[in-house]
Amino acid sequence: MGVFPAQYPKEILWALDIVPAEIWDPPLQITSASAHLQSYICSVVQLGLELILQGKCKFLDGFLFPHTCDSIQNMASIIFDYIKADKPCYFFYHPKAPYGGSARDFYLQQLKDLADALADHFGPLHMSAVKERVQQGQHISRLVEDLYSLRAQDRLRLSNEEFYGLIRQGEYLFPDDWIPLLETHLNRDRGKPDKLLTPVILSGVLPNPPELLTLLDDLGVLVAYDDFLNGSRRLLVPGNDFKEPFEQLTEAYFAMPPCSTRGSSIERRRDYLFKMIDATGAKGVIFNVVKFCEPEWFDVPSLQEGLKKRGIPSLTLDTELNQGLSGQMTTRVEAFIETLNKG
Amino acid sequence: MSLYQSARYHFMKDVGAPALLSLQKMRKKKPPRKPSPYLGPPLKCAGRLREIMTRHYYLSRYAPGAKPVAWVTSGAPVELLRVFDFYTVYPENHGALCGARMMGPEICSEAEARGYHPDLCSYARIDLGHAFSGKTPAGRLPRPDLLYCSNNICQTVLYWFKALSHYWDIPLILFDTPYNFEEIRDRDIRYMVSQFEEMIPELERISGTKFSETHFQKTISLARKSSVRWGEVLGTMKNRPAPMSIFDAFVHLAPIVSLRGLPVSMEYYDLLLNELRERVKSGIGAVTNERKRLMWDNIAVWFKLRDWSHLFAERGFNFVAATYTNAWAETIHYLDEKSPFESMARAYSLVILNNNLNHRLNLMERMIKDYQVDGLVVHSDRSCKPYSVGQYDLKRLLAERLDVKSVVIEADMTDSRVYSEEQARTRLEAFFEALEGEGKA
Question: Does a structural domain hold residue B154?
Fold first, then answer.
């Protein structure tokens, strides 16, 4: 099933033996999507629509559209109402913060509705399978958390590019296939490194353009932690021991790290960044923000101000997906890292 | 609330504001602009509207300390706040005012200097720019005690109000309306009703006023009646010639947006409706020689309002319908004092921008037929993603279904820096030619 960004209960899909294939940044030239979308719409949405228009989703059995932002919301409607995708479309609305108590009941009901809708087409859905997949999801969260923790100390000896290559395989691998990969890397704890890299934190939607990761590798920089929408914000979900699996998923949603697309307050986001900095000793933060991404861009100035007050340097990059790094951007990153190394 | 500030507010309300309005009337007026031969006589009500809005902005300066002050988004269910006697200020209305006074770029720049990206919504940048610099054509806006928003018009208002909430360290209440990808569901209504129930203790705490069901029901009833009246005002444009234009309606919608649920909005629309009915009886049109009737999609381009009203009128083209002005007439009539919370949830969830694009397509098709529209002008508004994403398809589908001529203008509601006059003129000229060419072949 083709799944658009960002947060959705993948455990329910797994329980139905559906493989979620997440659509974040397919490597395409935008040609057909511009007949439907204005040039001021972000490249996540442009590329997602382009993938469908170029006929590259024929192998999929359906689409799932989480309600992430205005642009994804309307793109979903374009696909469902106007282009009329020839396969089932599912929608998932998650409540936005600041939450009242009713948000919890609503989310729980949303999970059940999505499960029923998917089961109608791909079922039957057995609660034992949901339970098993929820436990598996919690197991993955723990593995990813351990990986992030070792990564922060550079004990995995993976380059930035390799690390995100591994993490991003979770966007399309079935958990049974992803878990062994994660475990293999976890078992390769190589102890403390001899050479210390410069630790930084990356914040934004996703680690694209990939050239940024390569450049950071070349500059001796370790991405010690991230605050990516497709990274820590949705992967590092604390576990809980509710007996009923939908309750477990509900609890997990409200315990996720703060995120702009869920309406989390700036204070919570700032404190989350501080926590990461304290835990990793990161010397600076790079906001790598996709052009036209409103949820992210609104938070950046206040977050930068908060970091400045704590004496943490930050850099903001305005990037288009898959467009590489311009010479000017490269110079800015180099200069920023140089400042960090001098500090 | 402070006694001194309360006394000052009431003094300004009873003495200061009337004195200001009298002074304004007495002040030597600028010589009237030369009347355009293409436009009908201006609406007499416009003077009364100016008085109402001047008074509203003037009194807002004295509200802090006397009344709780809330900044509210245009789609938020303000009826609930009225029960707690909040003085409400609408940043979007203020943004429109700044745009019309050509101050958009200057105030946006204040936000940009603080790191807010120029690609962000210009209403938000104006509002944040005003918060940082105090710049406004309205004298001074009161600092709020509460930020009250609903994401039924966009998610942007939530991001924007979050930034304000952080800057001022004041509470933010969100009315979260699940987007209607398909039909609205009972469980969505239940979720929204529960949110109202959760808000009440918080609003009581902030305002120091107890919730009154009777007051709430009266407010709901008044809001519904004024919305119905606003719908009737817009409905007069079904006549040929239309007694007003959408350029007028963009201005005259201020009370239904900003003063909804207050008696003054109802009084004003009674007055306006009477004047429009008189004009219909006398055959007075907003455009002297109405030849073609147009529809507008999206928020107004506030800094082009005057120019474009002339540009279209001189060709005998009149805008008689707009999805934007219709938004405050389309669903608020669902309000029902017998089931105030449920009806309010329904009314605010079903607004155009919280509904799927199929709904918008059907609505526009209906409006084109009802208002006998010959052409459609689509404002692709760089600032407003939920209004703009999907417009290219809407244009195509309406052309297929109704053979209606249309044009897309790339612009912004207030930030003139991203607008190209040359490009817009070229497109409009081609559109005018296409419209004129109709029926000639």
Answer: yes
Q: Round to whole Å and give the CA distance between B165 and B144.
A: 10
**How far is CA B105 from each of CA B124, B126, B411, B412, rounded to the nearest angstrom?**
12, 8, 13, 11
Domain that holds residue B378: 3-11+35-437
Amino acid at position B122, single letter: S
Topology annotation, domain A2-122: Rossmann fold (3.40.50)
CA distance A112 to chain B (A): 12
DSSP of B170-181:
--EEEE----BS
Chain B contact set for A299 (CB, 8 A): 159, 162-163
Instruction: Please state, in angstroms and rounded to a whole number, the distance separating the CA atoms of residues A230 and A235.
Output: 8
Contacts of A291 in chain B (CB under 8 A): 119
What span, in angstroms and rounded, lies between the C-alpha atoms of A185 and B367? 61
pTM (two decimals): 0.97
Residue B27 domain-assigned?
Answer: no
- B20 in a structural domain: no
Q: Does A69 touch chain B (CB under 8 A)?
A: yes
Question: In B153-301, which ranges are continuous DSSP H helix?
Answer: 156-168, 186-207, 213-235, 246-252, 254-258, 263-282
**Residue A244: count of CB within 10 angstroms of its CB:** 13
Contacts of B198 in chain A (CB under 8 A): 100-102
Q: Tell me, what's the pLDDT at B441?
A: 45
Q: Is A80 on the interface with B (CB under 8 A)?
A: yes
ipTM: 0.97
Q: Which amino acid is at A67?
A: H
Domain membership flag for residue B250:
yes
Helices (H), A56-126: 70-77, 102-122
For B231, residues 6+ apart whose C-beta sits below 8 A from its C-beta are: B329, B333
C-alpha to C-alpha distance for B224 and B211, rounded to whole angstroms = 20
Q: Distance between the two ends of chain B, CA-based, in angstroms?
A: 71
Transcribe B59-91 into DSSP letters. HHTT-BTTB-EEEE-TTS-THHHHHTT-EEE-H
Q: What is the pLDDT of residues B51-104, one digit of tens each?
A: 999 999 999 999 999 999 999 999 999 999 999 999 999 999 999 999 999 999
